[in-house]
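User: Can you write out an input/output pair for a complex, sequences first and structure second?

Assistant: Here is one pair. Inputs:
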Amino acid sequence: MKTILESIELTKIFKTGKIEVAAVRDVSLKVREGEFIAIMGPSGCGKSTLLHLLGGLATPTSGRVLVDGEEISSGKDAIRTDIRRRKIGFVFQRFNLLPTLSAQGNLEIAQEIHRNGSRDPQHVDEILNLLGLEKKTHHKPSELSGGEQQRLAIARAVINRPAILLADEPTGNLDTRNSMVVLKMIQELNRALSQTILMITHNPEAAGIASRLIEMRDGRIVSQQQEGEWNATEDRMSL
Amino acid sequence: MSAQLVLSNVVSRPMRSLATALAVGVEVALILLLVGLSTGMIRENSRRMAGVGADIVLQPPNSSLVLAASTGAMSVKIADLVSRIEGVKAVAPVYLQFNTSGGMGLVWGIDQESFNRITQGFIYREGTGFQGPDDVIIDDIYADGRELRLGDDLKLMNHSFRVAGIVEHGKGSRVFIPLDTMQRLVGTPGQATMMMIKCDSQSDIAGIQSELGRRLKSYPTFDMSSFAAHIEEANRDFGPLKYFTNTVVFIATLIGFFIIFLSMYTAITERTHEIGILKSLGAPQGYISLLFLKEALVLGGLGFVLGLGLTFGGRFFFQLLMPTLQHKLPPEWLLYTGLLALFSAGLGALYPALRAARQDPIEALAYE
Ligand SMILES: Nc1ncnc2c1ncn2[C@@H]1O[C@H](COP(=O)(O)OP(=O)(O)OP(=O)(O)O)[C@@H](O)[C@H]1O
Ligand SMILES: [Mg+2]
């Protein structure tokens, strides 16, 4: 399988005054096409920072990130933005929907940004139907439940068929029932559409649906396990 | 789609959008009312000038076509000289004086007999011509505007006059007093500020003008058929008025600029999180800047429309208060103010828009 995302000796050091915090240290990682990776680790170990670096939202102190062969870790904002636009879909714990736009509008703006202006209303309708949101097309995010908002956010992240979906605790703000629905949707994307996914989670059950588990501590990757190698396998959710 | 985002952002804060647009509207209305009033006044004056019925106007040397600002004077004896020219039917010396007591406007001092020969006489609504030195003739609009009636007292140039006649408007001035009285009040006995000349035939006009040019070299003459155009042009180019208009236009535009600037600056702070979202979706800087510029242009356009409403409302209000006031909107100024509104909006939004685009995506996303 082709490598779709690669980080090479990635390091990020934050300086606040005289204090330096190495949030990510020397992380080398390869993600193959169609993989579903879960990242776990204690709070503050650098998971989000790593995700931001991989998605070009931030620049590393040293090291490189290649997305589908293109270097996204260069300093230039315009280049990082362009690769992000073409190759990456983000899902966050805070759903991060545009509050003044309807569900449909939120999907369309993602299309518009991706395609430099054009959009595809039919594809938007398809996705809304798939999510069971066809009756909420014209609802604003504030008029949707948390679960519905996160489903919409996931739909927005994948509507342009990104090379990789980066999710930062997508179920962190959801109750158990909604978490299940959202996780099922993410799993479905990976299985049915071979969507490559990298997901941060605190929830071992959520991690259980991934094909590889990465554990981080103090900015480093401390262990990697393939599917079937970790404990959670036994109580894997039957989604 | 981005159009939808722009509009939904405008609508999501209706009071802020309305207040911003209204400020631009005030900018537009301020300019249009001022320009409209000065244009209206100038047009009205030149139309009344043409209504006198003279064929040629003779002015003293160094005089101005902006009649209110003209200070030159000439001897009334020149009238005799002019009347001896072949083809001249009648000559009327007139003394124009700008009056500021009790409302502003030009007062004409006329010799009633010669003036009547030019105008074919006033059409009297009420009363008669001058019966004595302290009589005044006013036109119907002036009378209505000030609720003056026959026999009423009217103070002009610190002197008390009695309303002797109310005439139909359109012949030169709204207020006439006897030439002798005017000369006495101003302290210029035997002087006039212009001569109204009527010819036997239209075909004589050019010949008489050149004859006048020969005999009275430095005295400018104007063919009445082109005088109105000359006077409008002269007023437009008249220094103080132009300076005043430019100042108002500049200040109004500045107000529009600052209001848009503040409004958009506040908006980008308020929408920091949304900017972060757009960045995470891969929106380039230009896209984000343009979003805010478009919003400002929508507000500017809205402001222009509101400004037109304010202008017509203000005009209606003015005319209720002061019926003698004429307001005429030159159509090109609608275009100018429209462009100015958009210009000040775009300029005001420029810095906030660029700032918005340069936000750090992580910080913006973390913004509460
Ligand atoms: N902008 C910043 N400036 C300074 N330090 C930062 C900044 N962002 C993150 N850090 C620090 O970097 C470290 C890693 O933060 P990060 O957000 O990546 O952790 P995390 O693993 O995502 O934690 P959590 O599970 O709580 O979300 C933390 O110690 C944090 O305080
Ligand atoms: Mg985190």
